[in-house]
Design goal:
Pfam family, one: UCH
Protein name: UBP16 hydrolase
Order of helices and strands: HEEHEEEEEEEEHEEHE
Number of strands: 13
Radius of gyration: 22 Å
Strand content: 25-35%
Shape: globular
GO molecular function, one term: cysteine-type deubiquitinase activity
Helix content: 10-25%
CATH architecture of the domain at 80-214: Alpha-Beta Complex
Organism: Penelope pileata
Distance between the termini: 37 Å
Domain USP: 1-215
CATH class of the domain at 80-214: Alpha Beta
Number of helices: 4
Length: 216
């Protein structure tokens, strides 16, 4: 059963995904893979109530276990652009019966556009906008192994964003999008130690959690 108003736009996004060509090992590539179009076939076929009623009739009794499964497509897209975007990277993988930490560096930008990952009818994006921009303001990094380690954070001190406050507290949509991240100073926080650092230092970290705020 198609629940969208326009079935032709069910798999459409605000911006063309095919123009992305994301670099492997980047946050764009992670998002591209997470929101890719999947084909459900063979053992993954979808149970179709409409097909079942068409084949066996509307009086088909469930305990007879007569169902019709059909090939389908599945895609996870963002339907509501959040004021604050939190990206959690999976930094572990199964190795036999053990879990192993993934220490690979994942590239992430200061400004990211979510439009290629948003449904074309994203609820809180003004009609005609083809960009949904977010600015990085926080990173959590973990050092060590799966058994032990230490969490540190990078945080950006910047001016208060009144438009963002309006969106969070009152749901007011922005009149226009800004394309530049707010000016500010990055700091590295490790327990009680705080040190000013450059943006390049932040972008070279092995991020575990990424925090972005919507540019308004």
């Amino acid at each position: 059963e198609v629940l969208t108003e326009d079935p032709e736009k069910a798999f459409c996004t605000l911006a063309n995904r095919e123009d992305l060509n994301p670099e492997e090992g980047s946050i764009h590539h992670c998002l591209y893979q997470f929101t890719r179009n999947e084909k459900l076939s063979e053992n993954n076929k979808l149970l179709c109530d409409v097909c079942t009623q068409r084949h066996y009739g509307p009086k088909n009794i469930k305990n007879e276990k007569k169902y019709v499964y059909t090939n389908a497509k599945k895609q996870m897209l963002i339907s509501l652009a959040p004021p604050i975007l939190t990206l959690h990277l999976k930094r572990f993988q199964q190795a036999g019966f053990n879990l192993r930490k993934v220490n690979r560096h994942i590239k992430f930008p200061e400004v990211i556009d979510l439009a290629p990952f948003c449904t074309v009818k994203c609820k809180n994006v003004a009609e005609g906008n083809t960009k949904v921009l977010y600015s990085l303001y926080g990173v959590v990094e973990h050092s060590g192994t799966m058994r032990s380690g230490h969490y540190t954070a990078y945080a950006k001190m910047r001016n208060m964003n009144n438009h963002l406050s309006d969106l969070v507290l009152q749901g007011q949509l922005p009149q226009a999008l800004e394309t530049e991240p707010p000016e500010g100073q990055w700091f590295h926080i490790s327990d009680t130690h705080v040190q000013a650092v450059s943006a390049s230092k932040v972008l070279s970290s092995q991020a575990y959690l990424l925090f972005y705020e919507r540019l308004l």
